[in-house]
Amino acid sequence: MHELGIAEAILRIAQAHIPPGGRVASVHVKTGMLHAIVPESLAFYFEHLARGTPLQGARLEIEEVPVKVRCASCGEECCLDLPIFRCGACGSADVELVSGEELFVDHICISEE
Ligand SMILES: [Zn+2]
Predict the structure, then answer these.
(1) How many domains does the chain have?
(2) Whole-number Å distance between alpha carbons of 22 and 55
(3) 91 within a domain of the structure (yes/no)
(4) Does residue 80 fall inside a structural domain?
(5) pLDDT tens digit string along 3-45?
(6) What is the pTM of this model?
(7) 73 alpha carbon to ligand 1 midpoint, in Å?
(8) How far is the CA of 12 from the centre of ligand 1 (A)?
(9) How are strands ordered across the β-sheet holding 59-65?
(10) Which of 27, 50, 71, 81 is deepest in the core (most CB within 10 A)?
């Protein structure tokens, strides 16, 4: 159900940006891995909700942003596979979140008809 709410938000944002007479070819979104979104599920809901709207047939392109932290001890930036917030270089837990929280519509591709 998590993905359903996100799909609704994406549709709302995309619909607000369609120019008159334009048709949306694709909607590009970035999802930080901290949100644990299932891309297939999000695409399914998007397609379902887009039926009968100007976004019908638009492709949803999902870019997953890895969880990345910066270590305050050694300055290294590491990508984490698991949400265990420890520096991959020196093992310090004094890290700052760099990416992984993203959840936004990056851009929308319009095709003029
Ligand atoms: Zn470190």
Answers:
(1) 1
(2) 10
(3) no
(4) no
(5) 999 999 999 999 898 888 788 899 999 999 888 899 999 999 9
(6) 0.79
(7) 5
(8) 41
(9) 59-65, 22-32, 103-112
(10) 27
How many A from CA of 78 to the centre of ligand 1?
9
Ligand 1 center from residue 35 Cα (angstroms): 24
Q: How far is the CA of 84 from the centre of ligand 1 (A)?
A: 14
89 CA distance to ligand 1 centroid (A)?
Answer: 5
Q: Which two tokens stand for residue 104?
A: 């936004």
Q: For 74-94, what is each residue's pLDDT tens digit?
A: 999 999 877 678 998 999 999
How many C-beta neighbours within 10 Å does residue 31 have?
A: 23
